[in-house]
Amino acid sequence: MHVIIIARDAPGRAGIRADVHARHRAHLDSADEAPLRLCVSGPTLGPDGQPDGSMLIFEAEDLGIVRAFVERDPMTDVWSSFALYPFDWKRGRPT
After folding, report:
1. CA distances from 27 to 22, 70, 92 (A)
2. Can you state the percent helix, strand and coil of the chain, rounding each to 5?
3. Among candidate residues 25, 21, 3, the one with its CA nearest the CA of residue 77
4. How far is residue 65's CA from residue 10's CA, in Å, rounded to a whole number?
5. 4-25 pLDDT tens trace
6. Nearest-CA neighbor of 18 among 43, 55, 36?
7. Which domains does the chain have, with CATH numbers?
8. N or C: which end of the chain has fewer CB within 10 A?
9. Other Cβ atoms within 10 Å of 22 Cβ, number
10. Cα 49 vs. chain centroid, distance in angstroms?
């Protein structure tokens, strides 16, 4: 199953985003060691072109595995919220 995560940054957390970025990247890199695989990730951008959230797509056996992984992400110190959406990837699917 594929799962999309949409996370929104809390207001005023741009400085914290920069501070946790390296730990966030290391955490995402560890996804290949866990029972899940990161397919796509990147910041969402506000009207000013600056990051205002995150979007990630994982492949995993179940939603619980993805939720547990995301809850351990250092970027949760930046996000005000995140939501998980099961996704049926039809076109442009990575091989």
Report:
1. 9, 9, 25
2. 35, 40, 25
3. 21
4. 24
5. 999 999 999 988 999 999 999 9
6. 43
7. 2-87 (3.30.70.1060)
8. C
9. 10
10. 19
Could you tell me the CA-to-CA distances from 55 to 39, 51, 86 in Å, in that order?
A: 11, 11, 13
How far, in whole angstroms, is CA 94 from its chain's centroid? 17
Amino acid, res. 55: M
- What H or E segment, with its residue span, contains residue 5? strand 2-9
Q: What torsion do the CA atoms of 17, 19, 24, 29 make, to the nearest 10 degrees? A: 130
What is the C-alpha to C-alpha distance for residues 70 and 73, in angstroms, rounded to an integer? 5
pLDDT digits (tens, 9 = 90+) for 41-65: 999 999 999 999 999 999 999 999 9
Q: What is the pTM of this model?
A: 0.90
Residue 38 CA to residue 59 CA, distance in Å, equals: 6
For residue 66, give both structure tokens: 């993805």
